[in-house]
Design brief:
Layout (H helix, E strand, L loop, with lengths): L2 H12 L17 E2 L31 E2 L22 E6 L4 E6 L4 E2 L3 E2 L4 E6 L5 E6 L13 E6 L4 E2 L3 E2 L6 E4 L5 E6 L5 E6 L4 E2 L3 E2 L3 E6 L6 E13 L2 E12 L4 E2 L3 E4 L2 E7 L5 E8 L3 E8 L4 E2 L3 E4 L13 E5 L5 E6 L4 E6 L4 E2 L3 E2 L8 E4 L5 E6 L4 E6 L4 E2 L3 E2 L11 E4 L1
Parallel strand pairs: 2-25
Antiparallel strand pairs: 1-27, 3-4, 3-37, 4-5, 4-6, 7-8, 8-9, 9-10, 9-11, 12-13, 13-14, 14-15, 14-16, 17-18, 18-19, 19-20, 19-21, 22-23, 23-24, 24-25, 24-26, 27-28, 28-29, 29-30, 29-31, 32-33, 33-34, 34-35, 34-36
Length: about 425
Amino acid sequence: MDENSVRGLLATALGDEPPIGPVARNSMRAGISLRRRVRIRRAVGGAAAVAVVAIAIPAANGAFRNASAGPRTAAPFTVPKVPSVPTGTAYVITSGAGTVTPIDLASNTAGKPIDVLGEPVAMAVTPDGRTAYVASGATNSGRGATSDQTVTPIDLTTDTAGKPIILPDPADAIAIAPNGKTAYVMNGFPTRTVTLIDLATGTPGKPITLEGEPEDIVMPPHGKTAYVTVAMGAKTVDGRLQTSFGFAPFDLATNKVGKPVSLGAAQPGAIAIAPDGKTAYVVSQSSSTVITMTPIDLTTDTAERAIKISTEPGPTSGYFGQPLAIAIAPDGMTAYVADGASSTVTPIDLATGTPGASISLTGKVGADAIAISSNGAAAYVANQPSSTVTPIDLATNRAEKPIKIVSGWDSGFEAIVTVP
């Protein structure tokens, strides 16, 4: 039975949308984690959420445990002070076209698309910012190396693609170790594996089978532990099939997932880690209307009280699921959560847990992925329905004129990253 059939059965059982599929996103420099969404028309695709932060994150030595942080201090949201002109380059994946497009952030100008093999669904950047690795080929198929299942290196100094690396399993997510020597390709449905790639030789190792289905991954810049969201299993509750999810340490030395803290039945959509390395933020969706952000204290291994972001459904015409994404500003003061169904981005004051007024992206825009410039001046939101990237001036929290991106028959803006 293929994944579409499985999701159809789940939809019948749940009486609602199928759960958002195992897709994650990648980022660099600004503590960025990008949204995941269902792509029922074809395959479920994804990318790793790689958060490059300033200091090491302590390894998790024991099991995570749940805790409530209690009521958060009520305070008005304050727009942070940021530089006026963004710097660096953004790279956005267009899966339908099989390309990665560079965008000059100073001029908001899209450059020539870079062709990659297959259908790109994930992207990670090395810690030195010189090379991106683009994973292609999340499919309904099982195991078996094919030219549609690849990881393509891109030299970011010349914007040229190198020789693709053939994968043994379909890819959902990719992350790169802090030393830049190894890539981790996460494969959710149907194989539940992780494949390590030696980046010096471009050689993939034998896939390692995981107990649970990986949903998302963040790779801190130092330390020996990454963090993943996983599907922990399903049970019938009041006649409905309900999946539970968790947030767990991934030991880079043993390649094993530790005991997770429970996230409940809310489907995790994206993860980001604060620049100080002390807190992870997991954006989740329950049913089709409730969106929350759960802070997880990585120094005490506890999940704090979830912050409610949205309880109202947005326009879903043309969508199969709800894209979610999160990016954290370089100063660590504000998180920005993108909601693809309502075409909005909501800023959240991380000191108080206070959401600000949502920033509307007018028109049939989407909000499928989000990244922040390395100097924190602007956010960039990739929008599948309109094949655009919308800049947001973070000094005013106003959306600016969208940047048009060449797209394919199904644009699938799977990921966006920024580099200085």
